[in-house]
Amino acid sequence: MRKTAIVTVMILAVALTVSAGDLDLSPLLTSSELEQLADHVGEAIVMPVGPARPLGITGFDLRVGGLWVSADDNATWWGHSLTGAGSAFGGLNGFTASFRKGLPMGIDVGGQVGTVAGISFFSAELRKAVFDGGLVEPSVGVRGAWSHLDSSGLTLDVTSIDLTVSKRFAFLMPYASAGLRHTKAEATLGAGGPSLETVSKTGITVAAGLHLTLPPLGVRLEVRRGTATAASLTAGITF
């Protein structure tokens, strides 16, 4: 009964998450400001890495939560693109709802929908366990992920590959990851003669997190650094 109630709340959270607005790109937005916009919003739409331990063929994980990305709401790039967006705790904020499903051979697939500064996005991922882990040995896995945002003339895509290590200690599971990420943004810029501008960046990303099991919930805090500093806090259930 408790799991049914939790799932119902999560479905309502998804419905609220996917109804969102659009960006308000100013014609004064420059190429360098577009790059800063892509750095911060791109960091926000990345699906959290999570522990390396696979769910198993019958496993299913549902999760909802909030996100935060460090950003200066007084910066010029913010004023030229996120005028109507509120800020909290000195940065961008939003909400997410995600799922993961275990498959044979240590493979998991997952997806995420969310909003950041009132703008909808979605993500997908494919994970493979290299070592399942045991009583002493940690779990090790690799993940490929893709996130996409399309709003009012801005198209943003983020692709990444990560290596993750995690280890369970009773009801705690700390984890850490490192990987490569490519961010690409396209937008129509220019007050005089609008033209399509493209910016892209490839770099290293790192993350660390802690999963706390409090039956029937699992609470997860993750902090990561790629093109900006971000944090996420989620709660969910695993079948």
Would you mind describing this structure in some detail?
There is one protein chain. This protein is an alpha+beta fold. It has a single domain, classed as Porin (Beta Barrel). It is 15% helix and 54% strand. It contains three helices and ten strands. It has a ten-stranded antiparallel barrel. A hairpin with a 7-residue loop joins strand 4 (119-131) and strand 5. The longest helix has 17 residues, at 2-18. The two termini are 14 Å apart.
Shape: elongated
Name of the CATH class: Mainly Beta
Mean pLDDT: 88
Quaternary structure state of the chains depicted: single chain
How would you briefly describe this protein structure?
The protein is of the alpha+beta class and 239 residues long. The chain has helices at residues 2-18, 31-45, 76-79; strands at residues 60-70, 91-103, 107-116, 119-131, 139-151, 154-166, 172-189, 195-214, 217-225, 229-238.
Secondary-structure map with pairings?
Layout: H1 2-18, H2 31-45, E1 60-70, H3 76-79, E2 91-103, E3 107-116, E4 119-131, E5 139-151, E6 154-166, E7 172-189, E8 195-214, E9 217-225, E10 229-238
Antiparallel strand pairs: 1-2, 1-10, 2-3, 3-4, 4-5, 5-6, 6-7, 7-8, 8-9, 9-10
Question: What brief labels describe this structure?
Answer:
239 residues; alpha+beta; Porin; 3 helices; elongated
